[in-house]
Write a structure and sequence with these properties.
The protein contains three helices and no strands. It is mainly α. The chain is rod-shaped, with a radius of gyration of 20 Å.
Length: 138
């Protein structure tokens, strides 16, 4: 089954590296912005706070957005981990005389992207838990 795998020395595309770095943070930002906007619109019409949202479906909308962004964050974290792993293997295989710094830089970006993705994945999960525990208009 080794024949079906891509060679490890194949370069990581700039798009894959960028998506791996930005997917989880962007998912968290979108989750927060979209969720807060929906809740603000349903719970504070014309600057008058309500105890119950105008539309009872707003809770399910926020839960749906949170679930979708969690999936995006998981995929982004997986891609960041994959990029980091492949670039680390490529870097270890290089000879000591090699002066190519591109792989070193990409490996650094992939490692930072993976660490940031894990952090923002934790933030996505924490926000999902808070969404489930706290009612929309409190």
């Amino acid at each position: 089954m080794q024949a079906n795998r891509a060679p490890v020395d194949a370069p990581i595309s700039a798009l894959a590296l960028t998506v791996g770095v930005l997917a989880a943070p962007a998912a968290w930002l979108l989750q927060i912005c979209a969720g807060e906007t929906l809740v603000a619109h349903a719970c504070f019409p014309q600057d008058m706070p309500l105890r119950i949202p105008l539309d009872p479906a707003v809770r399910w909308s926020v839960i749906g957005i949170s679930a979708a962004m969690l999936v995006v964050g998981l995929l982004g974290t997986w891609l960041a981990w994959r990029n980091w792993r492949l670039l680390t293997q490529t870097r270890r295989r290089r000879t000591a005389e090699s002066t190519e710094t591109k792989v070193e830089g990409e490996a650094f970006v992939a490692r930072v992207g993976f660490m940031a993705s894990v952090l923002f994945l934790f933030a996505l999960v924490a926000t999902d838990i808070a969404t489930g525990l706290v009612s929309a208009c409190t």
